[in-house]
Amino acid sequence: MPDDDYLESLEGSYYVQGRDFVDAGIVSSEIKKSLKEKGMPEDIIRKVAVITFEAEINIISYAEQGTIQMFIRPDAITIEANDVGPGIADIELALQEGYSTADESIREMGFGAGMGLSNIKKFSDVFELTSEIGKGTRLKSVVKLNGQ
Amino acid sequence: MKLSEIRDILDARVIVGEDKLDLEITTAFGADLMSDVLAFARSGCLLITGLSNPQAVRTAYALDIAAILVCRGKSLTDKFIEIAKELGIPILWTQYIMFESCGKLFQEGVTGCIRKASEVEDKHIA
Amino acid sequence: MNLETLVEKLNLKCKCCWEKLKSTEVKGGYAGDLLSDVMANSSAGDVWVTRQVHQNIVAVASLKDLAGIIIVQGAVPEKDTIEKAQKEGIPIMVSEWSNFEVVGKVYQLLNNG
Q1: Quick check: ipTM above 0.90?
Q2: Residue A122 contacts B, CB cutoff 8 Å
């Protein structure tokens, strides 16, 4: 169970509606804006922006709905993305670069090339992905603030 | 080179950012896949893309990309322009296809913001 | 310029249809990752530069009579893609270099010899 300190470090919580492509990416932009206002280092902001962007696109593309939460503590920024949806049957396969179950509408938007999860993993210092078939998927990504 | 020179080389129209034409740009990244951009593009580069939806602007914003060149004469929606203005990303628009756009800029000395994919295997997006 | 010259000058790795490199003339180039876009705008004889690795790229190249496909940025074509390309006679080449650099070099070769 997460401790109280962790829960108290919740900085923002954003609702994401599945299949709503019109505003896709807006959560990432909002999170970036708020980190800029806080004066976070630019490379950290870029990492978090990429992670939240891909997480947001994943929820929109595959789930019914979900939330993206950001926790800021002195040593790290944590992003949690939880969705209600079909879940991922084979996580190892889903993490393989190039593997995708995206349909043509997602591909024509410039996503769905099987790079999303590997991008998130690439820019995370800690990466956890769990899923339950028919229920949903939970992603946790940590970006450390003081070096690697 | 300056953004205004890029405009001239590619007969481009400035859709957003008339006030930013002095911006200095030396590197570029060409792609239609936003995940590809998110994985490999570097801050400060010119993004050359045929994708003209709001996600292209949001991707550029996420990475501090200097400006977007929309190629292939792709039609732009009001929403696209509105978000570019809101996020302060200059938009150039050209009829040239991506191949010609990249080729002409490469000949004028612009380089890829990454050269090989293996260069960015570390975790940094510098 | 034929594909063989292109492979040599850009140090590309050819994944299939080696036997066609010499006889395939490159008339122009097309760069992009949206399949419907390539379908709409590419011309016969173009060499296509893309980051897509999905087997659908072969169908597009075949339908549009493209000279061949260069997959960039170190992306690895799927096994199905290579098998299909072999069957359809579409040369697939790969490069470690980014899309911008590959396109720039192909453009220079096509325009300045």
Answers
A1: yes
A2: yes
